[in-house]
Structure to design on (830 residues):
């Protein structure tokens, strides 16, 4: 069986304590993973400056090229995986087996990462707004005749990564080309991407001393946060609330992403049905960019019914089935708890489970061996006041909320991606000014459609570098 | 685990003491009155203690604390030690000489070359109404040294964790380590130390950042304990923190005393097995659902503690820990427990390893 060791700046370290990664359906062990302890991370943090030093010894242009090569290797090569190796197909099978994600979605996430690596130059150019990359490397330079300085705030970035959404790994891929090292804490069920990506970077010529991987429990995540001056953490709403306003931590949690249909467009809502269904359903509804709320002032029952009809045929399929589209819940009891929570919210007046009548006799919760599935669920709300109107779950779940256009912006609450289908200039202006909306799409753009040349939940450059004054005088 | 004749004889002596109307404590005398059976007559050995069933930890919360004082200790100075109590009423245990006796016995297990007689100690652990602080101080004095202590308020630490005030937590930890470093740098010739794993780790890392080490700071012997004292942490400490200083793990609490560890190191994968100081305390590993049943060797169960001293009698207390039952060894010819960790039934609600 594969064993994945701790990687201490590239050096394997086998812990005396290991965790098993098991198949979501059979419970069979797939791999063992060394469990780090907090002190190990704190001690290794002394060598964090070396990670930046070895990366700064390689020009950024060169690192961009190596990142591109790493992307090719990630997609095609047999790469080391702990004490063994993994082909791309074996990687996909392993990832699917431990996360419950269908294999085709694992492949799609691989492609997403490889795309980001291949497009690194354009992505960095966009994120830096065309800044000369030498400025980031040297810490200072000149632009349009004005001295400028961008100071790295940490030689390394900590990443406390999730188990349930392999797609998010694309977010941290630009960090190495920025000559900043990585301290990765993989999600317990998804060690695969951090290890494979690290090996791809190594094989492409990134120095081993630039990346550390510390698997383990919550204490390991806490140690990463304690030891690294800049950390990106993935978690639930509690995690987001806890670190909000902390300049050293960029928390990523639920997105509460939404589609708003303006009064000027809602009468032709059928034309946007594909956009709505894709936004809810792609990647099995697991992502923070999946749509969990569709808001309009009228036709909401018809919209909900049309989406429910489209999703009614969806059923769990074996993870290697080419049409598998529903991910399994791998932690016992979670799906059941979510389903119960939805049922409780459905008791409120004006709230209807529209999918129920299309599902026929099938219950929302499907048990298949050790795994649970939740069938797509579309809920109609007569008003934004219903508790369920602002809920988000990790499966294809959406509320269709009837709300006057004039009240939408105020009522939607924090929204990571907002696709607003409207040509009304006043509504567009209000949307543009709304500070609780992060990514704004105007027009029928699926919430899941990302342009990687744009920032996601904060610009990575702003998080890692500080623009400051810098002057020199001759000596 | 068949009890030894020594243990059975000690059990009879302790039971006689606590249930004799002229020497027993009000709590146990009252218990016997209501129980409808006479422990002094019916308890012939350790296995008969099953008749008491499970000791309820609620009995130790609230007063009057005098109900726990055996009449035999009448007129003697009495200490009260607390455990728990971050919220609500803490559990209390009275003591007169027990903590001194326990640590004098423990002293015999410490190698003189690493814990030199006459050397001074640093107590880097919880202060306040805790047995540990006085016990370590007595250990130092018993071995001819003087004990330096720091202020450490564990209940405040737990509150910081529960509130998520991690910056305050770090600041408080820094404050504690500042005190320790100041003492170590003050030419007091401190050679021995008690420290919790977290504080030992923090101290070692601080010293390392100052260009020195635990060993170079003068420390040659450390004892430490807690559920975070895992084999991996033990190895990490030996390989990367201690710079050759000797460290011995202990398992203990206010209610039991101190269980020493069999020798542990690379030769046994840094496995830690604790043995209670029999006959003064007995540790058993029992079935999670049937605490009257001892699990087989190597199997996992809940730690069940029986304290048997002339001052304190506590039969069948189910600890907040679990572990694996271990066979006797040469130094400790009775059952031990390894892999001690928070009991799974409480783990989600227990804040451990806080200081």
């Amino acid at each position: 069986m594969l064993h994945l060791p701790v990687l201490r700046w590239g050096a394997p370290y086998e812990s005396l304590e290991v965790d098993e990664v098991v198949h979501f359906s059979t419970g069979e062990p797939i791999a063992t993973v060394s469990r780090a302890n907090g002190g190990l991370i704190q001690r290794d943090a002394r060598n964090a400056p070396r990670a930046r030093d070895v990366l700064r010894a390689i020009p950024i242009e060169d690192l961009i090229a190596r990142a591109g090569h790493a992307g090719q290797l990630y997609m095609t090569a047999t790469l080391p995986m702990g004490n063994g190796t993994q082909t791309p197909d074996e990687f996909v099978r392993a990832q699917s087996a431990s996360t419950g994600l269908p294999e085709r979605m694992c492949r799609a996430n691989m492609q997403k990462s490889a795309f980001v690596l291949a497009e690194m130059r354009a992505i960095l150019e966009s994120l830096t707004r065309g800044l000369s990359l030498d400025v980031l490397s040297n810490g200072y330079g000149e632009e349009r005749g004005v001295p400028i300085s961008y100071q790295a705030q940490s030689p390394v970035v900590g990443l406390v990564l999730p188990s349930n959404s392999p797609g998010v790994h694309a977010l941290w891929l630009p960090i190495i080309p920025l000559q900043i090292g990585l301290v990765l804490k993989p999600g317990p069920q998804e060690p695969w991407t951090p290890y494979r990506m690290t090996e791809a970077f190594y094989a492409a010529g990134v120095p081993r001393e630039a990346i550390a991987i510390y698997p383990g429990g919550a204490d390991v995540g806490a140690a990463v946060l304690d030891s690294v001056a800049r950390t990106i953490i993935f978690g639930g709403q509690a995690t987001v609330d806890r670190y909000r306003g902390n300049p050293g931590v960029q928390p990523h949690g639920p997105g509460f992403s939404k589609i708003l249909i303006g009064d000027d467009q809602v009468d032709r809502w059928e034309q946007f049905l594909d956009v709505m269904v894709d936004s809810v359903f792609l990647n099995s509804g697991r992502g923070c960019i999946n749509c969990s709320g569709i808001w309009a002032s009228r036709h909401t029952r018809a919209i909900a019914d049309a989406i429910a009809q489209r999703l009614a045929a969806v059923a769990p399929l074996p993870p290697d089935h080419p049409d598998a589209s529903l991910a399994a819940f791998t932690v016992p009891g979670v799906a059941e708890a979510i389903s119960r929570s939805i049922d409780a919210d459905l008791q409120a007046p004006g709230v209807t489970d529209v999918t129920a009548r299309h599902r026929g006799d099938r219950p929302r919760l499907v048990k298949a061996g050790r795994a649970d599935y939740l069938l797509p669920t579309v809920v109609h709300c007569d008003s934004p006041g219903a508790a369920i109107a602002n809920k988000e779950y990790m499966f294809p779940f959406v509320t269709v909320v009837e709300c006057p256009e004039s009240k939408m912006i105020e009522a939607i609450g924090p929204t990571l991606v907002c696709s607003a289908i409207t040509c009304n200039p006043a509504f567009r202006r209000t949307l543009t000014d709304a500070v609780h909306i992060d990514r704004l799409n105007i027009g029928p753009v699926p919430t899941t459609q990302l342009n990687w040349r744009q920032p996601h939940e904060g610009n990575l450059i702003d998080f890692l570098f500080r623009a400051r004054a810098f002057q020199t005088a001759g000596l | 685990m068949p009890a030894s004749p020594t243990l059975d004889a000690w059990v009879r002596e302790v039971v006689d003491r606590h249930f004799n109307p002229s020497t027993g404590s009000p709590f146990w005398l009252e218990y016997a009155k209501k129980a409808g059976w006479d422990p002094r007559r019916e308890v012939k050995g350790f296995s008969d203690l099953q008749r008491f069933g499970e000791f309820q930890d609620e009995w130790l919360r609230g007063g009057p604390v005098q109900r726990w004082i055996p009449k035999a200790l009448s007129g003697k100075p009495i200490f009260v030690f607390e455990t728990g109590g971050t919220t609500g009423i803490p559990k209390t245990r009275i003591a007169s000489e027990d903590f001194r006796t326990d640590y004098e016995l423990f002293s015999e297990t410490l190698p003189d070359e690493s814990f030199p007689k006459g050397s001074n100690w640093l107590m880097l652990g919880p202060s306040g109404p805790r047995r540990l602080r006085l016990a370590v101080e007595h250990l130092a004095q018993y071995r001819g040294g003087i004990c330096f202590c720091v202020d450490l308020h564990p209940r405040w630490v737990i509150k910081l964790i529960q509130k998520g005030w991690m910056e305050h937590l770090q600041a408080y930890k820094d404050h504690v380590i500042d005190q320790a470093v100041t003492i170590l740098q003050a030419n007091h010739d401190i050679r021995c130390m008690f420290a919790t794993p977290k504080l030992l780790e923090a101290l070692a890392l601080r010293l390392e950042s100052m260009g020195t080490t635990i060993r170079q700071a003068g420390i040659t012997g450390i004892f430490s304990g807690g559920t975070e004292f895992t084999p991996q942490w033990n190895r990490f400490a030996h390989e990367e923190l201690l710079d050759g200083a000797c460290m011995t793990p202990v398992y203990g609490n206010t209610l039991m005393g101190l269980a020493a560890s069999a020798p542990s190191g690379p030769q046994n994968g840094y496995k830690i097995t604790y043995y209670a100081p029999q006959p003064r305390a007995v540790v058993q590993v029992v079935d999670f659902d049937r605490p009257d049943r001892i699990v087989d060797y190597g199997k996992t169960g809940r730690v069940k503690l029986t304290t048997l001293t002339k001052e304190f009698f506590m039969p069948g207390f189910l600890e907040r820990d679990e572990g694996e039952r271990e066979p006797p060894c040469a130094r400790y010819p009775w059952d031990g427990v390894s892999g001690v960790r928070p009991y799974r039934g409480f783990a989600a609600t227990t804040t451990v390893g806080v200081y």
About this structure: Chain A has a mean pLDDT of 95.
